[in-house]
From TrEMBL, chain A:
Family label: Belongs to the ABC transporter superfamily.
Gene3D superfamilies: P-loop containing nucleotide triphosphate hydrolases
ABC transporter domain ranges (all copies): 2-227
Keyword Membrane recorded: no
Alphabetic keyword roster: ATP-binding, Nucleotide-binding, Transport
Chain segments annotated as coiled-coil in the UniProt record: none
GO molecular function ontology, one term from the record: ATP binding
Residue ranges crossing the lipid bilayer per the database entry: none
Pfam families: ABC_tran
Name of this chain's protein: ABC transporter
TrEMBL record, chain B:
Transmembrane segments annotated in the record for this chain: 12-34, 54-74, 111-135, 147-167, 179-201, 221-242
Record lineage: Bacteria, Bacillati, Bacillota, Bacilli, Bacillales
Name assigned to this protein: ABC transporter permease
Phosphoprotein keyword on record: no
Entry keywords, A to Z: Membrane, Transmembrane, Transmembrane helix
Keyword Membrane: yes
Length: 237, 249
């Protein structure tokens, strides 16, 4: 269970998050949607202890990330790009992570196979395409087989086949009782994947509920998104 | 311990590190060889005033290898992927695996220390071998306490480099400043002509651990203490800055 409670983040005079609250529950894929710059990545970064909140809390199973005993076995996260140094091979990147978490080397080969990257594991990450880098980041997140996944824009850079694969993969994770929180600015790509939807705009939550509730009388999630953000943020266009 | 092993694994899987290790292992011997050839005549004639520096001067100048190790260990975390590739950086992954920033820094410092010690042992071996080959029976005997001083100098230099890079988030400034300072123009040597305070700069004080120069002001122990204090202060500032700073900042 992921619990974001009255989270505020200011950088200088700029308020990035204005007291947002929502939850991501086990057995559900929660889509955290919003336009670029709305505060999605900041929220996920605070949840993973990478950035500091000005006030409020972001907890994983009731604890801040820094207090988790086995972080990699509790929550797997993927942020921008591959999250790896370009001069290292994909396999070497996963191996140091496995070593840090006390996992066997064989697990590295398993996750490489899961994300379909075994063929490029011996190549330097710097030679990877964006899609390959994203697969490597996902492989790193899956190393500890964590019950919680936090993925920032996971479909960015993936080809249609990759997008389809990740949709199926995330649905399966949720069906086995895992918690999945993913952010995206691509509404269309997510409608078929998510159970719950949280919509953020300019640092404020403008909608939070089950997919059907959010879509409501609108024909698509995308239509609902534009309608909701226009109403709540006072936009007219 | 797992974080420490992961840091070693990270360092040894970076191709540049092998270049740094090669430099660290053989550059001191090369510096020493050049110095030995220049001084050989005077040493044989018994009129050399620099017998106490023979060999050690190579180990003082040849510290670049561990400077690169210390800088790379930290700067590699901050290298950003191109925007086309998502603009990510390794630090995000590192802190997702080792959430305690202090543990992360200590693991990195530990890995840099161990590599610096091992590299120094190899450099001492190559430098002493070269000195004995060139000077033969005229080669001075090397004192264990001074060689220990060399190892301390190398480790503290590497830790200073790491601490500085944590503060700057990029390897460019620390690498440029420390490499030039240790090989081309030593700021502390230049400043020592102006003020006595320059003897308390880390490199100048640290050298007193193994070289008795004509203008030395510290005992080996005091020199080591001054340099260790610098490294500790830099690492503390780095720890505070690193602890407070957002990764996204």
């Amino acid at each position: 269970m992921l619990t974001i409670d009255h989270l505020v983040k200011r950088r200088g005079a700029h308020e990035i998050l204005s007291g947002i609250s929502f939850q991501a529950r086990p057995g559900r894929v929660t889509g955290f949607l919003g336009p670029n710059g709305a505060g999605k990545s900041s929220t996920l970064r605070i949840l993973l202890g990478l950035d500091r909140a000005t006030s409020g809390s972001a907890l994983i199973n009731g604890k801040p990330f820094a207090q988790l005993a086995n972080p990699l076995m509790t929550v797997g996260a993927a942020f921008d790009g591959s999250g790896a140094h370009g001069m290292r091979t994909g396999r070497a990147h996963l191996r140091w992570i496995a070593r840090a978490a006390g996992l066997p080397r064989s697990r590295v080969e398993e996750v490489l196979d899961m994300v379909g990257l075994t063929y490029a594991a011996g190549k330097r990450v710097g030679s990877y395409s964006l899609g390959m880098g994203r697969r490597l980041a996902l492989a790193a997140a899956l190393l500890g087989d964590p019950p919680i996944l936090v993925l920032d824009e996971p479909v960015n850079g993936l080809d249609p086949e990759g997008i389809r694969w990740i949709r199926t993969f995330l649905r399966e994770r949720a069906e086995f009782g895992n918690t999945v929180l993913l952010s995206s600015h691509l509404m269309g790509e997510l409608a078929e994947t998510v159970d719950d939807v949280v919509i953020i705009k300019r640092g404020k939550i403008v909608a939070d509920g089950a997919l059907e509730e959010i879509i409501g009388t609108h024909s698509t999630l995308e239509d609902a998104f534009f309608a909701l953000t226009a109403e709540r943020a006072g936009d007219t266009g | 311990m797992k974080a420490f092993k992961a840091e070693l694994s990270k360092l040894f899987s970076l191709p540049y590190i092998w270049l740094a290790l090669l430099l660290g292992a053989f550059a001191p011997a090369l510096f020493a060889a050049l110095d030995n050839f220049a001084e050989k005549k005077d040493i044989i004639a018994g009129i050399s005033t620099r017998l106490s520096e023979v060999g050690y001067i190579g180990l003082a100048f040849g510290v670049q290898g561990v400077i690169i190790v210390g800088v790379l260990a930290v700067s590699s975390e901050y290298v950003r992927e191109s925007n086309e590739n998502g603009g990510g950086q390794q630090l995000t992954t590192s802190l997702s695996v080792v959430p305690s920033r202090l543990s992360f820094m200590l693991a990195k410092g530990g890995a840099v220390t161990i590599i610096s010690i091992l590299l120094c042992v190899v450099a001492i071996f190559t430098t002493l071998t070269v000195t004995r080959l060139i000077l033969g029976e005229y080669a001075p005997t090397f004192d264990w306490s001074k060689l220990l001083g060399v190892a301390c100098y190398w480790v503290l230099t590497a830790l200073l480099a790491s601490g500085l890079t944590f503060i700057t988030k990029s390897g460019v400034i620390p690498l440029t400043v420390l490499m030039i300072n240790s090989s081309v123009v030593s700021l502390s040597v230049v400043l020592s002509k102006v003020t006595k305070l320059a003897y308390y700069l880390p490199d100048r004080a640290g050298i007193d651990m193994f070289m008795s120069m004509s203008d030395s002001v510290h005992t080996p122990l005091a020199g080591g203490f001054v340099m260790a204090a610098w490294a500790a202060v830099f690492f503390m500032i780095a720890a505070i800055v690193f602890h407070r700073r957002d990764v996204a900042a």
